[in-house]
Amino acid sequence: MNEQRPYFKLIKAWVLILLGAASTNLSAQDIHFSQFYHSTQNLNPALTGVFQGDKRFVANYRNQWASVPVDYTTFSGAYDMKLFLDGLEHSTFGVGAIFNYDQAGAGRLNTTNLGLNIGYTHRIGQRNFIGAGFGLGFSNRGFNPDRLTTNSQFDGDVFNFNLPTGEEDIFRNENIFFLDFSAGVNYHYQIPKKRTRLDVGVAMMHINEPAINFYGNSTIQLPKRINIFGEMTFMLNQDIDLLGRVLFQFQEDYRENVFGIAGRLYLKKDKQFNDLALQLGLSLRTHSFTDAIIPNIELHYNRWVFGLSYDVNTSEFSTATNGRGGLELAAIYKIFNVKTLPVFKHCPIY
Prior knowledge:
The chain is mostly beta strands. The chain has helices at 6-22, 40-43, 318-321, and strands at residues 55-64, 72-83, 91-104, 109-123, 128-142, 175-190, 197-205, 225-235, 240-251, 254-271, 274-286, 290-301, 304-313, 324-335.
């Protein structure tokens, strides 16, 4: 690649991923975060260890549709770190673990997941990196049948909770356990000693399509999910960055598209890893129609990042929610190790 035209390459790559992904009608039915860029191990195992720093702790919390009786609650906690191996001065390994818990609906359908991820990133130039990753998940899915109601409990005059549901013999299991596999690739671009960078990747989740059925002799499988993700940070000057993010997901007929833009203002930057910055952004999530408008704000303080967003529901369901979608919080803490001078320079990822 021509190292003399970094901005042209960056813009070209960004446009290509936008056009390529936008041409596909995508969606998802798994758990999701509006601040998906702060839950990278849920996006793509190839992003494990791809961050500025040596170790990272991440927490995400989402409460959706709290204004209606069937709210959705999601929590995610993750840890990942970089590993450098002697003799591989152009390569970086990332290892990570992630815990997810999601509860939804009147039947309290819940999913608990513990995932282990490993990523590998190789430098192919001063500014260009390619990576791949693999993930293994251990999951449990369950529900509470006592909270379900059916038309069999209507006695002709009123609804009677004491009447049988008529579904007692249908559910064979109330809890199921399954293994889950994922894999992905990622391209990373950065300008040395600048904040300008780009990540573009694609991942496949639920590669093995595990069985998740609760009833009968039939087998219901969790469909594969494809994620296409892009994030760009463009350093306008010493004090201001412009950010753009896109996410396209599809899982059979379910689709989710998210487009976001943000600006970051550095209020203090006196030395490395000792920053104070404020970021304001706006995202749009769509399916076959506009689903939500998502204003978001972030505070960057030293090694901490705090994110707050709120989904303003614009779909047909807004009649029930009165536009109140989901509150979401994110917190990130990074550790930077003090390193001795090695014989060779480790593969740097900013």
